[in-house]
Amino acid sequence: MLTTILNVSFTEVEEMAEDLVIIGHGAAGFAALIRANELGVKPVMIGYGTLGGTCVNVGCVPSKRMLRLAYLKALGQQVEFKKAIEDKDDIVSTLRKEKYEDILNSYDVEYIKGKAYFISPNAVKVNGQIIEGKKFIIATGSSPNIPDIKGLREVGFWTNVEALNPPRDISSLAIIGGRALALEFAQMYKRLGIDTVILQRSKVILPDWEPEISLAVQNYLESYDGIPIFTDVKVSEVKKGEEGKMIVTNLGKVEADEILVATGRRPNTDLNLEAAGVKLNERGGILVDDELRTTNPNIYAAGDVIGDQMLEALAGKEGAIAAENALANAHKKIDKLSIPQAVFIEPNIARVGLTFLEASKLYKADYRVVKMSNVSKARILREDFGLIKTVIDAESKRILGVQMFGKYAAEVINEAALAIKLRATIDDIIDTVHVFPTMAESFKLSVMAFKRDVQRMSCCVD
Amino acid sequence: MKLRIDMIKENVKCENCGVELTEDNIYVMEINGQKHYFCCSHCADNYIERKLH
Predict the structure, then answer these.
(1) Cα–Cα distance between A124 and A130 in angstroms, integer?
(2) From CA A32, how far away is CA A38, in angstroms rounded?
(3) pLDDT category, A458, cuts 50, 70, 90?
(4) Among A22, A70, A267, A430, which residue's CB has the most CB atoms within a 10 Å radius?
């Protein structure tokens, strides 16, 4: 018996174990750390790579700053690409210090830098040190998913990491992918003076979104930004071209200085999870129940590593809930229906809840689409491109889903998220007075459209 | 280098009647787990009818 050899009792081993070990130092890991402290627990946090994880270093923060600078350039401001990168680096280092380094120093935690892996159901090894824990939270995030394309690895490519920290100057960028990341980088680079093209495998870009949104966004990016978008593309090979890198597809070929692979992300599960009895789900992420508990009852998971929706805000919420469930047996769950998300091209694309297709499988669903040209604020801004689509349960009139392409959509969608969280009906929204003129009125108009013709209304009708 | 594009542009069309789809007429239906795009529910129904026979 191990306990006999070491001459310590099982109870003593239990007492030596850490109350909580958090593996990962990104959004989910930090949320877990803060909640653990609020519950009176000092955790051990083990982090690998740059502190802060994807979001602050190579995700939301730098990409949104670059998109902002690209927007300013589109408005006519002088923005050079290299200066934009410097500006972005400044924001990243400042926020990383304020939101992660300083925060880490202000909380009660034992921080270990290194790559951890499980050696048993209740212990990990990092830098040669064994750490036993009563509870664990795995929050190791995700990495770019690289498709198996002939010649791609030999010729070389960029992911979001290189695209946000370009190792060389380029004049053209071919993007494989047609979801959030692909669209953001396409517009960012194009507006900063570098030609881009999008090659998307499915029949439409944003294939999991409402089809009206997919086509409206494609139309906008092609017409206003001048970004060629090819859909239903099957990439067969990547090879050296005459001057740059060539992508060979079923619809022809494209040559550009560089290739950006934006085909999703895969969970970081390289933790010897078998030793801990932690199983994976069909997406390759960590299998959890609705309380974020893995197949080992003492191990929880939070954030991208689950392989579900990979969203910064959701990761943070999951980190906090995993800590509460692990330490206080709180049995908390996340209302997945009301998780909003956005694509930060300009104008924004945002969504929450179910699509009409998804809702139709569960409810007697109905929907309305309202064009932004019906929204006074959009007209005042002279930015009336886009639309909003709202899906409801036709029987209860509850709002089930909202998707929007239009100015400030990433802000407006928060009202829709709250409506869905509170299981609001269309009358709850109609009876709420909205500020005029605002883009948030678009949501109200989209639910009013279930009752009246919104094209035949004056500016401020109840 | 400037982008060199030698590609055929194929916009999404109704899988039943072939009309080009826009944000104003697109209708999506899932058949055997795959998304199919149509210009209206009637075309979707016709498509399924044709496939069944």
Answers:
(1) 6
(2) 10
(3) confident
(4) A22
What pLDDT score does A146 carry?
Answer: 97
Instruction: State the fold for domain A152-263.
Output: FAD/NAD(P)-binding domain (3.50.50)
Is the Cβ–Cβ distance between A196 and A229 less than 8 Å? no
CATH 3.40.50.300 fits A338-456, yes or no: no
A256/B3 Cβ within 8 A: yes
The single-letter DSSP state of residue A305 is G
Contact B1 A174 (CB under 8 A): no
Nearest CA in chain A to B27: A211
pLDDT band at A194 (very low <50, low <70, confident <90, very high): very high
pLDDT tens by residue, A99-134: 999 999 999 999 999 999 999 999 999 999 999 999
Q: Give residues with Cβ within 8 angstroms of A317, minimum separation 6.
A: A31, A334
CB atoms A357 and B28 under 8 Å:
yes
Minimum CA–CA partner of A209 in chain B: B28
CA distances from A192 to A210, A228, A438 (A): 29, 16, 29
The answer to whether the CB atoms of A251 and B5 lie below 8 A apart is no
pTM of the predicted model as reported, rounded to 2 decimal places: 0.93
CB contact under 8 A, B1 and A171: yes
Nearest chain A residue to B4, by CA:
A255
A-interface mutation test, from B3, B21, B41, most A Cβ less than 10 A away: B3
Task: Evaluate whether A138 touches A160 at the Cβ level (below 8 Å).
Answer: no
Domain-by-domain residue ranges, chain A?
2-144+266-334, 152-263, 338-456
Select from A196, A197, A212 the residue whose CB has the most chain B CBs within 10 Å, as the one to mutate to test that interface.
A212
Burial A50-79 (b: 16+ CB within 10 A, else e): ebbbbbbbbbbbbbbbbbbbbbebbeeeeb
Q: Which of A210, A166, A155 is nearest to A188 (CA)?
A: A166
Select the residue of A196, A215, A253 nearest B6 (Cβ to Cβ): A253
Using a CB–CB cutoff of 8 Å, tell me whether B5 touches chain A.
yes
The pLDDT, as a whole number, for residue A310 is: 95
- Report ipTM for this prediction: 0.96
Q: A41 to chain B nearest CA, in Å?
A: 46
CATH superfamily, domain at A2-144+266-334: FAD/NAD(P)-binding domain (3.50.50.60)
Q: According to the model, what pLDDT value does residue A91 have?
A: 96
Q: Do domains A152-263 and A338-456 have the same CATH topology?
A: no
Of B3, B22, B37, the CB nearest to A197: B3
Alpha helix (H) ranges present in A276-425? Answer: 312-328, 356-360, 376-381, 409-421
Residue among A333, A351, A347, A334 at smallest CA distance from A399: A351
HSE of A419, CA atoms in CB hemisphere, 13 A: 30
